[in-house]
Amino acid sequence: MRTTGDQEEVCILEAIRTANMHRDELVETLVDNSVLIIAAATARRALTVREISAVTAIPLATCYKIVEKMSAIGLLAETGKVRTSTRGKASMYTASMKTFSVDLSNGSIDMNVTWKNGQIMNINHEVCTPMPQGEVPAGADAALGMMAK
Hints:
Layout: H1 5-21, H2 23-29, H3 33-41, H4 49-56, H5 60-72, E1 76-83, E2 89-95, E3 97-105, E4 108-115, E5 120-126, H6 140-148
């Protein structure tokens, strides 16, 4: 059963709520090349995992694992089920985000995610602790001295 536009919006809203609970995990997941490929493949329309695998050339077993993870943290919305040729049913998935951007500065990763419903999420992930201006980390003096020779 394919979903209507309203049903798809509800599924995407649920995915966004899930994503809000997994903000830190989103940063780590969105830098995975396979995740980006699957997000791009499902950006326009919902696909089954088998269709995603065929379109992206990601092996089916790997694709199932990635889609499961993406769905669990809100990057994909399950929008319904369709009958398969083997008389079973397969879930349909669509990307819940429209765009995202990454800014790397001052020892942190800043991500801005725009979801398909227009909501914007800003995520700041500290990668390392900021150092006061002019302070040199231990061991850096020796390294700088060796470079000068």
